[in-house]
Amino acid sequence: MKHRMVVLVALVLAYGAVPLLLGSMDYVMSLIIAALTIGGVALAWALLGNLGGLVSFGHAAFFGVGAYTSAILVVDHHWPVLLAMVAGGVGAAVASVATMPALRLRGPYFALAILAYGHIFRILAVEATSLTGGAAGMLSIPGFPTLLGINLASKTGAYALILTIVLLFAWLYGLIRRSTYGLALRAMHDSELATRVVGVPSTHLKAAMLVISAFMTGVVGAFNAHQINFLDPEYAFASSWTVLPIAAAIFGGYRTVWGPVLGALVVFLVDQLVFKELMPSGHQLVFGVLLGGMVILGPHGLLPLLGRWSKKEASHAGA
Amino acid sequence: MTPLLEVSGLRAGYGQINVLWDVDLTVEEGKTTVIVGPNGAGKTTLLRTLMGLVYASAGSMTLHGQTLKGGKTWDIVERGMVMIPEGRMVFPDMSVLDNLMMGAYPRAGRADWETRLERVFAMFPRLKERRGQMAGLMSGGEAQMLAMGRGLMENPQVLLIDEPSLGLAPVIVDEIFTILADLKAQGLTIVLVEQNTSRALHLADHVYLMRSGKTILSQPAAEVDLGHLHDLYFARDGGSAAVG
Fold first, then answer.
1. Which of A56, A76, A88, A94 could cysteine-pair with A222, CB 3.0–4.6 Å?
2. Nearest to residue A171, comparing CAs of A261, A252, A243, A268?
3. CATH topology of domain A28-318
4. The domain at B1-80+158-237 falls in which architecture?
5. Contact B105 A199 (CB under 8 A)
6. Residue of B nearest to A188 (CA)
7. pLDDT tier at A314 (50, 70, 90 boundaries)?
8. Do B73 and A191 touch (CB under 8 A)?
9. Which chain regions cross the lipid bilayer (chain B) (predicted)?
10. Residue A174: enclosing H or E segment and its boundaries?
11. Is the CB of B152 inside 8 Å of chain A's CB atoms?
12. What is the dihedral of CA B173, B174, B175, B176, to 10 degrees?
């Protein structure tokens, strides 16, 4: 009951208070949109990294493929933007099938193999000039339409759209985590061999998580393409689309559903609004120290840390 | 009648290193087959090969007359053969109950998991008491019971058990063997790998002795002479492998 109230209040704040209070501040709204974009990828990454136990350095590939798929469908084939975004997710999911041989590897080997795959897709985007415009990129990609009277192309509209996407993904993540598959994935984290012994088709399960994670990342990549109306391979496949979500997920607590989203908001907004103001160049250093400190103080991330503190407070109040 | 599980001329190993050399094994339905042998004889490799965890390079192995070669471990589990692995392999970061639920993961087991769970709890009351505890915090004996309970959640027709007494106190070993005897009495087909020869012999219908990747003795349990078995076990036979 208490949990439901918290969720309800958070929803009202997110959909109501944020646009009302900050809607007129374009810069802050763009930062929040960017933070949620990273949060969406962080969530997708955590689905694979936490539930599947697969640390990926290659999510930039799915982000870029999703972005290009959607942009090409809209620009060249005049698809409606929202439909093309879903197709962007499907495109990324298809691309993830090509990376599946990497699933045979474990730990750092998987991480490096999928990093290499990421670069292959970037090179493809550069070379397939007729399709992607090559290194010059794609300009004036159409933005979001007006839906149910809300202009999604406005800052507030784009915010509502990415917020909805992230909430849907979080719901999907929670659903998977609570299911039998989630239980099996959690077991796989402990020992993949043991899950096979009890009859879990671990290879299929990892592949399924990779596809879902790639789909989610692709949709967010497509959102970003229509949000900034521009794409080039260096940008769409930039390593920051992998690194920032990982940092956000670890900072926020990648074993929780909300940790990656919260982590993205805190990490990105604090970095941009505070550290960047104080230290226009090299502000990433502060952020690096912060991340390092987090790993030492609360290796499970911010959200579990907050939970522990609030429990302590409660027990003090009770005493 | 064809035997439930039949292995002949099986070769298997890890990469370039071959471990099993033309192993033959026949397991009759409802019987307890015991495989003994010193360390490094290939007993664990044999079980793992049966489960599809180790690649079989030659020979045949069949369950219910159908080949097991090339089968995926999870499919073999669904076909009714379940292994309780050496070293328990429980999931340490999960509760006892979640560990048991993992045993009901194969589709066939999901519908009546509650009945199965009740049966496992009846057999291992301690697991019921500790169902909320993290499996990683259990003692070796409890973890072995959990591994057995998890295996029984699969409702197996053939149970492969790899050294259940390993590293356990004698009183716990007694308990484990009592449970194995119960399972045998219920008609379950058991393949037991054990180093504790005399304990295992009490339970056995048929005994195999493995050494250096070969089965060098195959005898009905009633005919086994423990002294002779131990001579073979410790290679006091002058090196000539006697096949019984």
1. A88
2. A261
3. ABC transporter involved in vitamin B12 uptake, BtuC (1.10.3470)
4. 3-Layer(aba) Sandwich (3.40)
5. yes
6. B91
7. low
8. no
9. none
10. helix A155-178
11. no
12. 50
